[in-house]
Amino acid sequence: MRLGLLIVAVFAAAACSNMRMRENVRGGGVLPGLSLTEDIRPEELSVESRPADTVMVSDAQGRQMLLMKAVRDEDGEMVANDEIVPSVVVASFRNVAERGGKVDLRFDITLPPEMAESRWQVRLTPVLYALGDSLALAPVFFTGERYRKAQLRGYQRYRRFLDSIVRDSSLFVKVADLEIFLKRNFAEVYAFRNDSTFVTEEQFESAFGVTGREAVEHYTDHFRKRLNSRRARQDKDRFRRYVKVPLDAGGSRLDTVIRYGGEAYSYTYVHTMPVPSGLRKVEIELRGSVYDEDRLVCELPVPGRLTYYVSSLSSLADETPRYLTRVVERRVEASSLCWLEFAAGSWALDLELGNNTREMERIERNVEEVVGKDEFELDSVIVTSSCSPEGSFRSNSVLAGRRSEAVCAHFRSLQLRPRAVPENWTLLDALVAGDSLLTRADKEDYRQTVRRFSDLDARERELSCKAYYPRLRRSLYPMLRTVSFHFYLHRRGMVKDTVHTTEPDTVYAAGVRELKDRNYLKALSLLAPYADWNTALAYCSLGRNASALAILQKLPPSAGVEYMKAIIHSRKGEDGEAVRCYQDACDMNPSYVHRGNLDPEIATLIHKYKLNRTI
Q1: Are 567 and 533 in contact (CB under 8 A)?
Q2: Right CATH number for 2-47+92-146+249-314 from 2.60.40.3880, 1.10.246.80, 2.40.10.10, 2.40.50.140?
Q3: What average pLDDT score do residues 248-253 get?
Q4: Closest of 108, 134, 110 to residue 122, by C-alpha
Q5: Buried/exposed 115-144: b ≥16 CB within 10 Å, e otherwise
Q6: How do residues 181-237 score in pLDDT, each as one tens digit?
Q7: How many Å from the N-terminal Cα to the C-terminal Cα in the chain?
Q8: Helical residues (DSSP H) of 80-221, grouped into ranges
């Protein structure tokens, strides 16, 4: 009787303890912790609760610390006694540096030992807030031992259910009954039982008047087979019944089993995110809930947020505009070329011949575009027609001139001046040199043999005797029959022949905008030709340290140049040179003393060598 009462008392005490713990969690007396991973700097400390008997002291290195219930020892020093009441010291913000368009957010999620209930699973979800939007990150699960055992038991029950499903349909055949029936009534059929000779389905049916499939179907236990099929269709329902909470449900970042030990459980969470344009601040909030299997025990109160201020090298961009000096000429020239086909020996412009209609429409658009500009006034248009070398130079001169006049006549509203190039040997020279089907020997023969004739008719006769002449006449000669339009214009209202003006360099300005928006590859494609401070900044932001340093070493000394050198030398592990450059930058511009805390390359040097105490 006493033993029974003792057991009841123990269970009652445990139940009361669990209820108190549950109420403590629900009421916010015990909460998970959310803190920054990096070392806390003094300016970021904010004390939420501090006992009245807590004092602030400094150690030998000058670092400040809190001592609770402090007393003086025999030497008069302030020390903490054994009864320590911890104060809550949190870092409310952190400066994080963007590199390569991304930033790492590091924080610790801590579960107090009071929440390590064996039957519970604590589900903690970090939520990221940036640019007016929120994003739930992958959750972290702290799972009790009994909770995990219940999960595994569910999987075991589900495995036993799967094992009970028969996968081989032949197991439903009543083999013993089939053998007895065949042995008694069809000895010939039964003889096949021990006959190793292969028997086809057709042979079996011809011998006994029934197929093997029909025989198996007759002696199949269809009732058991239907039960098995129905069981197989219950697969998903049974999984949901037995496995109430699947392992790693929802793609958690961590799902770990915790045990009683009297210590807090901590997980360092690292989230890497791209940094969009305009991002200056990111906040992290921790939401949580407690589950007993699939039953919600309680939602946890939301603790305070962590704030990350994003710093970027792009903030050092020099936005001073650059200007280009442009020389404006009073007289302006423009040219347009078209290929028109004429009948052999004819100068009549036939728009139905070849692509003449399309070519004339194109040249008309070009003429309208040039003449229609209000900025310019048309002086004259020279129309030049040229022919291929076939025929005599005299006849080609007449033909080219008449063809040029025919084209001018087409544009009656404009004052056009015809010109003629009887045989366009200059263009033929270029076409021969660039033709990929002519051999090197052919090209050399053309240059050394054909071109030595100064008489153009004799030259054409010599060329017609060459083996490669058909190739030239078929493919290259048509390209010599051209009509070119050369426009001569002047700027309206301009008196001087030349004026020098300055105008903003729009390409450079676009590169600086891309740099400010952290589109570093695009910025570099625009800024690379300038090789200035912003170009070095783009290289450095992409981690191309050697290219950045090569530019910086050619720039005049300045605080910004020295500061950027310090960053690059720090990345390369050259601490001595990095410290020297950083000190030079701070001497030139004291604002870089504070800037150094924003860039991890410099912050590491500051804390490692205690730099700002001597600057």
Answers
A1: no
A2: 2.60.40.3880
A3: 70
A4: 110
A5: bbbbebbbbbbbebebeeeeeeeebbbbbb
A6: 555 555 555 556 555 555 555 555 555 445 556 656 666 766 677 777 777 777 788
A7: 80
A8: 145-163, 175-185, 187-191, 201-208, 212-218
